[in-house]
Amino acid sequence: MIKKLALSIVLIALLSFTGFNNFRKLVLEKLEARTNDYPEKVYVQTDKPFYATDDDIWYTAYLVNGITHKRSDKSRVIYVELINDKDSILIKKQLYTNDVSVAGDFKLKKGMVPGNYMLRAYTNYMRNENPDYFFQKQIPIWNINKNDSLGISQKNSSITPAKKIKTTSLPEINFYPEGGYLINGIASKVGIKVIDKHKKNILVQGYIKDSNNHIVSKFKTLKFGLGVITLLPEANKTYHASIIINNEEVKYPLPKALPNGYNLNVANHGNEIVLKVSSNNTIGLKNSFLIAHQRGRLIFERLETKNTNSSLIRLKTTTLTDGVANFTLFDSNGKPVCERLVYIDNPDNGVVANVSIDNKTPKTRDKISILLDLRDKSGNNVSGNLSMSITDIGAIGQNTENKNIKTYFLLNSDLRGHIDNPNYFFEKENDIKRRYLLDLLMMTHGWRRFTWNGILYGTKKTKTFSPEKGIFITGHTTALKGDKQQIPTATRLTFMSTTYQEKKQTNKNGIFKYGPYVFNDTLSTIIEARVKDFKSDDERKNRFVSIHLDDNFYESPKVTRNTFFKPTSIDTIKIASFIEQAQRISEINTEFIESRRILDEVVITAQKKSEAEKRRETLNARTDYGFPSNRIDMKDFENVEFLTVLDLLNTLPGVNAFNNSISIRNQGTPSIFLDGFRVQLEDILYLRGIDVEFIDVLKGANAAFYSNSANGVIAIYSRTGANFRSRNIKRKPGIIDFTAIGFYTAREFYAPDHINSSGEALKQDIRTTLHWEPKIMLTDDANKAEISFFTSDSKSNYAIKIEGITNTGDPVYHLSTFQVD
């Protein structure tokens, strides 16, 4: 009997060990799979925090591996969009990077509506995840119209100055037991976060009381509405927080303690993390499994083999990278029972940007040279990619606690919820108070990108969107006559300005795909198709093919405001100063342009044509029929770039366009022409307002210019340089001729040379962005960079802001100032 019992115990132990090994293998395999199939992150540095109409937004986009923060080996293409407060995408740029960063810019129109705009950036591969993971940044744009209050059209703007909010309702208090649960008989820390009805962090103080109304402890929230207490729950008791509001006691219940369970306590000392794991179960911690990962990369694992009720672990951080780490305790059944986020802040980590200015006492219009390099804590040179802006603090201000590339990659992008002033936690190294508050932040914010149930047991999702390495030219071919079904053909692509030519056979559905290509600006392109091949004897029938290009650019992801995207408070005084300076810059530019137009007196005897007449003649020159019955000139419309061609046609009298059909005066389908070539309805459905220069409608006798046009004519003329993938499309049987649009090339930031430039010597110079350097590459061969620029006419303090990423994945942020007298 004793032998049988012993054998049973051995078998149970073996089965338990085998079960654990299988579970451990599953965990490690899933983490490795996530590391190999890593997500991507994008960050965008802009030269300023806010702008005025008629201004330029200068920016640099950074694309990294979402786990290591090194250069991503997947995507090479980044999309950057400017979105208004109605969630309409107004401007979109397609950028190509061969390393980790790329420069871009947006030109803001003088007449655009002011408001809270959003800059959004992502890769095509990032579209496989929730759009909340896209980079988002609020961009306030202010009107330089002097008639507006503070330079803003209050009627159209969603921006309001920051003000103190008087809380008339009860605050919201949330409690976060360390590890997840309160357990009877086990002391546990409880994080506290207090917000008001406007989701603003507020400070409160009060008492923790038990169900007998005895005071257990006192609590007080600190900066960001964060606080913490230590509680030893007793059986058969409940607990609540008690605060006094308007001379009345208000009670907030704490989570009810469990009779049995696990607790995970963490003390973060910077150079080491001390973990205490506790349990009051009958088997204690036996067969529990503690694991830690950083953005999905395994950094620690331990199986408890003893029947003990507590265990103390010391984990050195000297080999770890900085950022949020997730510690999870699994019970003997493989169920996650405790979880704790910890911020790894290895004192040996960190990269410093060293900035030295040659001119220590610069005056107005002086030349300044900055020498820049990167060094680690040991003083060694470090390679990386950086961008730098130099702005007027007097006009723009300087908030040292705002989000930057370091806080975004190491904090914001990995935590749930909004984090106010994230750089507060990084501004001072080895600051005990800030480290303490950062640990409270870890206790009160969840992990955004990672849930164990989804990782371990969730179904692997099919990746719908692939990483893009360049530009693809895609489309399909159809029969020219009959039912016009999609048919397989031989195709040939030719870039006219080069000697490049490529042939491909479509698939059975007539679909072709050329690329990836990397080119900037535009290329004149021809795609040809043949029913059989390009050597057929019957050339006429062999050309009975229509070619249709795809344009996936307009299938942008849905615009959402992610959970940590909140409007920033506005410093009214600073904004007034900024707008006043922006107005003066606009006046200076206008006066300078006008002064350059002054000519000797000329007597003109002919009648001057109006701008409208000139415009009409320009458009009529593109047509063969003279004057239309009705016309849409896109120059007369605003904010219609992303309306469909059917939406545009519906604005014309007598034209009905809906459900992919068009009629004039409720007659049959009219003849449709695009840039003078007859096309089918499906050939124009991809067009948007941004593609179109003007649309003419010909009715009755006017339509007689074209044969077989009894139902009228719709004549669409594309805008030169408008379409994203292609423009100026001309179709003939078996051939399509168009201009392929390449990647956007950022404009060069212009600043006057006050030594060598004579043309603008008399023009006043009061730039708010003194200099913008979008790409600074530091390599092993060239580990120092020199950046030169001129000061303006403004005597002010200036901020030097440098952001970037090293080749080893360390984010870099530097902020310093200098004064111009």
UniProtKB/TrEMBL annotation:
PROSITE patterns for this protein: TONB_DEPENDENT_REC_3
Chief localization: membrane
Subcellular location: Cell outer membrane
Domain TonB-dependent receptor plug: 629-713
UniProt keywords, alphabetically: Cell outer membrane, Membrane, Receptor, Transmembrane, Transmembrane beta strand, Transport
Gene3D superfamilies recorded: 2.60.40.1930, TonB-dependent receptor, plug domain (2.170.130.10)
Membrane topology: Multi-pass membrane protein
Keyword Nuclease: no
Domain of life assignment: Bacteria
Family statement: Belongs to the TonB-dependent receptor family.
Name of this chain's protein: TonB-dependent receptor plug domain-containing protein
Taxonomic placement: Bacteria, Pseudomonadati, Bacteroidota, Flavobacteriia, Flavobacteriales
